[in-house]
Amino acid sequence: MSAIAIIVKRDMLCYMRDKSYFISSVFRPILWLIVIGFGIGSVFQTGGMDWRKFIFPGMIGMAIIFTSVFFGMSIIWDRQFGFLKVILVAPVPRVYVVLGKMVSGSIISTVQGAFVLMLAPLLNVPLSLPKVLFTIVLMFIGSMALTALGIFIASRMESFEGFGMIMNFVLMPMFFLSGALFPIDKVPKAMYWIVMLNPVTYCVDALQYALLADLNSNIVFDAIDFPIIFNVIIIITFTILIALLAGANFSRNK
To answer: 225 pLDDT band (50/70/90 cuts)?
Structure first.
């Protein structure tokens, strides 16, 4: 367990020293919220709800998605500068390396998602202490799953260029087909099962439940007919599976 703590401590120090990384990750969802929410959203409603409120959980999800998955790039960085080799020669299970990176990425993603959450009063989305705590817990759980995905992909890559190319083909479709911008029941039937197989769908739906259910529960439950506990189970199951696969990649190839 000390190996996990060392990895987390190092990543947190790197994160606090890199101000541009923090600013760019937080600015992206805020920009989308302003341009799409206050621009296009000013003329749309979703099931009687202001569209800007509806996409707000999705913008938090965007901060989590991009930060978590791109955190996997730190695996490539550590490999190129030799730090990963130092970790892997230590007598600890490879899955500890994955867990350490997952915890680091999840903490960073949750912090950045929390900054976006602070914009809720601007959209008249009421917050309470239980709601905020519940949302933060969901953000952390979702971040664990998506950080594991980023690590799994990065564990098979050798360069930043290759990782970036795959992320462009993976991240944007995962985000757009997650229900972040429109209710799931509005997608064509041919794409419905793609949406259902998308882990981000369950992360976004959980955030919608936490933040919007008391405003208009029909919006949330019309989007995807799964209760919050089912969303959490799916996310945790996905996290465990991908973490084990990433650990196997390290054991086999590193």
So the answer is: low
Collapsed DSSP state (helix, strand, coil) of residue 4:
helix
CA 233/CA 47 separation, integer angstroms: 28
pLDDT single digits (tens) 53-82: 888 888 898 889 888 888 877 777 777 666
The token pair at 141 is 């759980």
pTM listed for this prediction = 0.84
HEC profile for 64-111?
A: HHHHHHHCCHHHHHHHHCCHHHHHHCCCCCHHHHHHHHHHHHHHHHHH
Calpha distance 39→52 (Å, rounded): 9
Instruction: Identify the band that residue 223 occupies on the pLDDT scale cut at 50, 70 and 90.
Output: very low
**Per-residue CA distances from 219 to 3, 11, 185 (Å):** 44, 38, 10
CA dist 179 → 51, 78, 205, 234 (Å)? 12, 34, 7, 16
Q: What is the pLDDT of residue 88?
A: 63
CB 115 within 8 A of CB 206: no
**Helix (H) or strand (E) segment spanning residue 46:** strand 45-46
| Residue of higher predicted confidence among 177 and 41 | 177
pLDDT at 17 over 70: yes
List helix spans (H) across the chain: 2-17, 19-32, 38, 51-70, 73-80, 83-88, 94-117, 129-154, 160-176, 189-196, 199-212, 217-223, 228-253
* Nearest-5° Cα angle at 72, 70 to 78: 125
